[in-house]
């Protein structure tokens, strides 16, 4: 292991310098790290299922599911277990080895809806597929219950740096995010946490977010790198999309700071050329999301992805190659139970400045 890979502590200056290196050098370093820990020809295909869409009380400035913005998204109630099972089987047939179930909730509340999500986890784990959830903030007991149900991963993105966070979200704090990640870490569930570029943040913000992720002990098993998909009706509708070069640099920098992590090329792939995506794979991305929609935003068609894999000689990663399949504990044998938790997570008073500016402009 060379110095770069064994390095635990990074300074902001070092990471910004790494990000800004001449591209060929950055790519070489990232690809070299990638080959030490991963098969460079293997990419995991995952599918996102929006199990509960829209109507979210949060104010994430990039998100069309926030109830306060007028977007194309229509709120839908929680899907049935059978609906999710059918979608998961179809995704598995298309080559997905991981299903991520997303619910537009601020946080998990104990009760019948969470019980249904636990049933979804039990059902999907039986399909021999990696099961991931992204449900908002989570207490330790709720994380334990998901773990007992057989959850493989929990996604909870940091989105950006702690400094930039209040510019994009004012309804919760960065510390809330870190607390949920800590709660998940107390269980057997793996951690998936990443961010979004192209929201007006600086390169220093990107570096700071990667340093925060890289400093978690252990580092997250999975880090999604998203490019903002500006959606009409959100405060970020007029933002320019991040360039392919920014995505490649971000993926490469993430790969170097998080050598063993699965780096996921997530939202924004629809705007990327095939050549651009190939560069991201070379830089260390080893997962994509398949399906024509990523929750509510467009994504390349699965057939296009299969063609690209064929062109590049890539093969798909099978489920549980990185960590063994969790056991599902039956309801009868469960140790952790419904505590009726209605946790009060923080509500900072800060308002998203960009939203107010946008509002005034409209008036
Ligand atoms: S990103 Fe998640 S928490 Fe934020 S508004 Fe959208 S659905 Fe809600």
From TrEMBL:
Compositional bias of kind Polar residues: 353-363
4Fe-4S as UniProt keyword: yes
Top EC class for this record: transferase
Binding residues annotated for [2Fe-2S] cluster, in chain numbering: 100, 132, 192, 264
Domain Radical SAM core: 41-269
UniProt cross-references to SUPFAM superfamilies, sorted A to Z: Radical SAM enzymes
Cofactor(s) the protein requires to work: [4Fe-4S] cluster; [2Fe-2S] cluster
GO MF, one annotated term: biotin synthase activity
Entry keyword 4Fe-4S: yes
SMART domains assigned to the protein according to its UniProt record, in alphabetical order: BATS, Elp3
Cofactor note: Binds 1 [4Fe-4S] cluster. The cluster is coordinated with 3 cysteines and an exchangeable S-adenosyl-L-methionine. Binds 1 [2Fe-2S] cluster. The cluster is coordinated with 3 cysteines and 1 arginine.
Keyword list, A-Z: 2Fe-2S, 4Fe-4S, Biotin biosynthesis, Iron, Iron-sulfur, Metal-binding, S-adenosyl-L-methionine, Transferase
Record field: compositional bias (Basic and acidic residues): 341-352
Pathway: Cofactor biosynthesis; biotin biosynthesis; biotin from 7,8-diaminononanoate: step 2/2
Region of interest: Disordered: 341-363
EC number: 2.8.1.6
Pfam families: BATS, Radical_SAM
Complex and partners: Homodimer.
Protein purpose: Catalyzes the conversion of dethiobiotin (DTB) to biotin by the insertion of a sulfur atom into dethiobiotin via a radical-based mechanism.
Family label: Belongs to the radical SAM superfamily. Biotin synthase family.
Identification of the protein by name: Biotin synthase
Source organism (scientific name): Sphingobacterium zeae
């Amino acid at each position: 292991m060379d110095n770069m890979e064994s390095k635990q502590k990074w300074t902001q200056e070092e990471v910004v310098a790494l990000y800004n290196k001449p591209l060929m050098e950055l790519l070489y370093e990232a690809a070299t790290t990638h080959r030490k820990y991963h098969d460079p020809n293997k990419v995991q295909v995952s599918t996102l299922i929006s199990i509960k869409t829209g109507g979210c009380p949060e104010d994430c400035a990039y998100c069309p599911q926030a109830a306060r913005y007028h977007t194309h998204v229509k709120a839908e109630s929680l899907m049935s277990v059978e609906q999710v099972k059918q979608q998961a089987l179809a995704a598995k047939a298309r080559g997905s080895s991981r299903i991520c179930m997303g619910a537009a909730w601020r946080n998990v509340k104990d009760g019948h809806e969470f019980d249904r999500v636990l049933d979804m986890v039990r059902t999907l784990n039986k399909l021999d597929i990696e099961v991931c959830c992204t449900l908002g903030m989570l207490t330790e007991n709720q994380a334990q219950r998901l773990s007992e149900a057989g959850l493989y991963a929990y996604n909870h993105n940091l989105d950006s740096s702690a400094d930039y966070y209040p510019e994009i979200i004012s309804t919760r704090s960065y510390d809330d995010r870190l607390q949920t990640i800590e709660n998940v870490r107390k269980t057997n569930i793996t951690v998936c946490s990443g961010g979004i570029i192209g929201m007006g943040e600086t390169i220093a913000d990107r570096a700071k977010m990667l340093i925060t992720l890289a400093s978690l002990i252990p580092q997250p098993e999975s880090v999604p790198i998203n490019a903002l998909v500006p959606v009409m009706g959100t405060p970020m509708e007029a933002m320019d999309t991040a360039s392919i070069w920014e995505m490649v640099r971000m993926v490469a920098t993430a790969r170097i700071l998080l050598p063993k992590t699965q780096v996921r090329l997530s939202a924004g792939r629809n705007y990327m050329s095939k050549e651009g995506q190939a560069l991201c794979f070379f830089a260390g991305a080893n997962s994509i999301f398949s399906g024509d929609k990523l929750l509510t935003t467009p994504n390349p068609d699965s057939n296009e992805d299969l063609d690209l894999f064929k062109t590049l000689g890539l093969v798909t990663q099978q489920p549980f190659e990185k960590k063994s399949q969790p056991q599902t504990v039956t309801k009868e044998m469960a140790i952790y139970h419904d505590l009726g938790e209605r946790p009060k997570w923080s509500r900072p008073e800060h308002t998203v400045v960009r939203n107010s500016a946008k509002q005034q402009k409209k008036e």
